[in-house]
Amino acid sequence: MKDMTEDEKPDRNGQPRVLPTLDHRKDYWVSGRLVYLRDKGTAAPSDSQLQSAAAEHLKRSRDPDHKLLGFPVVHDLHAFGRKPALEEPPRILNLAELASQAVDGLDYAAVMNEMADLGPDGRIALFYRDGKLLQHQVFEEPRICEDIARGAVIHNLEVKPQDVSGWRTHQFSIDFKGCLGEVCARCVRVCPENAIHLRGDGASSFCEIDPTACKGCFICWVECSRKSADCILVDGKVFDSEMRAAHFGE
Amino acid sequence: MRRSLAGSSAAAWGFRLSRVDCYPYYPITPSTSCSEQIAAWVADGAMNSVVINVESEHSAASAVIAASKSVRAGTATSSKGLLYMVEVLENASGNSLPFTIFVGNRATGAPINIWGDNSDAYAVRDSGYIQIFSGNAQETLDDIIQAYRIGEDLAVRQPAFVNLRGFTGTHTYEPVEIPGPKQVDSFLPAFMPLEPMFSPARPVTFGPMLSAPYYRRHKRNQSESLRNALEITEKVGKEFGEKLGRSYDIYEWFGDRNAKLVVIMLGESSGAARSAVSHLRGCEGVPGLALLRIRLFNPFPAEAVAKALYRAGAEAVIVLDEGLAHGDVFPPLALRVASSIHAHLGAGAPRLVSVIGGLGGSEIRPDHFQTLFNLADNVAKGRPYRREPYWLDIEEDPILLTDPSKVKPRLWKRYGDIWKAQPILPQYHRALPTTNYEIRLFGRAGQGAITSAVFFTGAGIEKGLWVLTKPTFGSERRGAVVHCDTLIQTSGAEPTRSFAGRQDMVCIYDDTIVHSAQHAPAAALKSDGVVLVNSSKYTPNRIRELLQLSAEQAVYVVPASRIARELQLGPYFNMAMLGAMHRVCPLVDFEDAIEYYKGNVPAPKEANLEAIRRGYAETTDRELETESAPVVNELAEEFFEWRPEEESFEMATLRSLETPRGS
After folding, report:
1. What are residue B308's phi and psi, to 5 degrees?
2. Which of B116, B227, B237, B447 has the greatest number of beta carbons closer than 10 A?
């Protein structure tokens, strides 16, 4: 690497990051904006192989006068050895929580003094990689309203289900006599609110709509394999062309 | 590692040392060279980063925001480019995503204007970003590193702008200390995202829709975290000093501790104010005075500024804005200072005057501050003053009344009484010192003349001198006359940024420029100054006549075009001129400089080095001793014939009768 001083080079610990592909015989690695494919089960490339691949790429992207062809492409082979910066979110603890547990590689006295100086809003963020403490930061919790996440980010799995029945103007239900059950289950997959569940198994299975989670969007009705003939009922009735005209203006 | 760098390149070093992982950009003057430099480093493998060539600033901002969820990201822009980003900018501050944008401040037009003022930064002042204004190239480098540290602090976690005035800041070559990567790493830890990228086990939603009760609670949190940047910036500035040797505060106080008169401003133009303050301090009849340069513009350090003014016992405060108000009471900086002192000092607040200047690349010179301190003195004495902004350098609407005949009559009705009550105090208007060594180069565009000045600067800086080179831009039509100023500091301990505008050396790159009445190349030459001309056509005496120089002013000629031709360098004679400059300028030793050039001149290396040596050797103040016919610089002659620089008919006739020596 031209011009890069020894201190500037990133660490090269770990193996190349291999990601699964749709082609089950291949793996691919991503480097910068480039994607490389290789046969599954072959050994990870060695350092020297990576170097020569870089040199080859550099040669191909330049004309004989060493001028760049096209726009600059990243020849960043270190990215192979680079792991994602974070595999799990940082653990954020207050003084009491920190005091009640042992964290390896932390200067407790200094950190706790720092946190005590900040008062009740003193927090520590612990960033882990491979189970090892990578970095920590002591800070004062900036939020006044702590029920709102920083940056209003929503952690989807922590969201409690809400009763949205008030949003809809019609009652939706599935007539289990017409439903094909697990043979189809199309409505289960297309429901944006995850409000339709498959009940029972085998020939006796059928789909059911959770009335508190259904917001009445009509998607299941449009997508139903049986064209709703006698399957998805709106206000207890088959959704016929008249109602369709009233709702979709057709 | 001390190097000669322009402001934009210093910004690029800031990004490189911060180990930016992702840099999407769309180029726009005057911040382009920052992005170009980074793209070149990444292409050469010198920097480990992903550069994305996007199709607009809007996309650049979108990409930088998306990247900053997972990695350290940055970009650079200016003027309309920044305005084009506005639509997405608030997504970063609202979603608490830290990254840094370098802004080469430029006017926003219409009319189109590529030069520096703060309009673009003012336009985004409410977008929730941290805004830092740098005073020079060194600070820009340091501020970008610090901006990452401040923005990524968990008490803040907000994006930041680092601002530097276009051209006078971004394109001035000056000495910059580049810290080592290890040193920077010890100060700036690796970027840590708060959410893992694309983790199926932990899905997250960025940018959700929030209804009123949640929205207002979120905005309360957001404004609190931006406010925390006040404290964190102060802390980070101190720590930067401990680890890298240059500490920074949220504002800079330059001048007397008990200043009665204070000028408040932002950014690079404060260099001129420093010169004026140093010049006026301690003069008879001048009370204590100071410059208060705000470094952290957003969040605005209201309490700190009010306290500083109160401690000093300030009586009159002049706020200079390089941007417009467009219908507001005051322009943004004056507005912020006015509300700060009103809120924190109440009846004890000093009187405040707003001044607008430096628009669209207008010069801000030390003598402007002489006028402003004179105005402040009048205001402090209780004389009447304007409650709306004053303007710098508008003859029809002056600050102090010098020539009543030029004043627009309708303004008499509004301001006549104020003008009459404001005396001009001679103690503020003593001539500024012209003790530094200044060089002005006249050449024809492209970049040849500027390149040689940049080399000369590099050699001077290598030697440990404080050298600045400020090219002028805007008329780079091929063949147009351009000039470029270089300053070598010879007096005063404080590094200066301000040119006095009187030259010790005027260097003329082709002899057709001698005829240019419009450029009058030797008009500001000092009485003992030197003129250096590339000519084998005119004798020194003839040049002396043409430029109407006095006997004390010396004239040297160098046949640079002939040297270049003999060395087969074609029309590139700037290296020969570089050698000649060393012969005339006593401050940068030629033998030391040639060592520096050996490592730096472009190909063909040997021929260029030989051109420098011959340029040095063949410079003379006598007639050239040679038999051969003069070498005419055909390209220059052609440009001159095509568009003679406003030459009068008489002059043209006389010139056509001129007999080149030797023919």
Report:
1. -60, -40
2. B116
Contact B221 A75 (CB under 8 A): no
Q: What is the CATH number of the domain that holds B15?
A: 3.40.50.970
Looking at A159-163, B39-43, B150-154, which range is the least confident one?
A159-163
Average pLDDT for A129-143: 89
CA quadruple B530, B536, B539, B545: dihedral sign? negative
- For the stretch B198-228, pLDDT in tens is 677 778 888 899 999 999 999 999 999 999 9
Domain-terminating residue out of B244, B270, B300: B244
Total CB pairs under 8 A between chain A and B: 155
Pick the range with the lowest mean pLDDT from A139-143, B644-648, B649-653: B644-648
CB proximity B221 to A under 8 Å: yes
| pLDDT(B194) > 70 | yes
How far is the C-alpha of B570 from the C-alpha of B633, rounded, in Å? 10
Taking an 8 Å cut-off on Cβ atoms, the answer to whether A142 and B208 are in contact is no
- Is B67 in the A-facing interface, judged by CB distances under 8 Å? no
Which range has the worst mean pLDDT, B51-60, B307-316, B531-540? B531-540
Q: Is B54 touching A (CB cutoff 8 A)?
A: no
Q: Which of B392, B409, B428 is the last residue of a domain?
A: B428
Contact B158, B129 (CB under 8 A): yes
Q: Which of A7-21, A210-224, A234-248, B10-24 has the lowest mean pLDDT?
A: A7-21
Say whether residue B212 is in contact with chain A using an 8 A CB cutoff.
no
Please judge whether A142 and B218 are an interchain contact, meaning their C-beta atoms are less than 8 angstroms apart. Answer: no
B165 and B269 fall within a common domain: no
Token representation of residue B463: 């030697």
Instruction: Answer whether B371's CB lies under 8 Å from B430's CB.
Output: no
Neighbours of B581 (CB within 10 A): 28
pTM score, whole prediction: 0.85
ipTM over 0.85: no
φ/ψ region of B382 (left if φ > 0, alpha if ψ in -120 to 50, else beta) reads: left
CATH code for position B575: 3.40.920.10
* Cβ–Cβ gap A89/B202 under 8 Å: yes
Residue A141 or residue B511, greater confidence: A141
Number of domains making up chain B: 3
Best residue in B218, B224, B230, B231 to probe A by mutation, most A CBs within 10 Å?
B218
Q: Do A137 and B156 touch (CB under 8 A)?
A: no
B162 or A46, higher pLDDT: B162
Please list every residue in chain A whose beta carbon sits closer than 8 Å to the beta carbon of residue B156. 142
Q: Which domains does chain A have, with CATH numbers?
A: 6-81 (no CATH), 91-152 (no CATH), 165-248 (3.30.70)
Nearest CB partner across the interface for A143, out of B47, B210, B221: B221
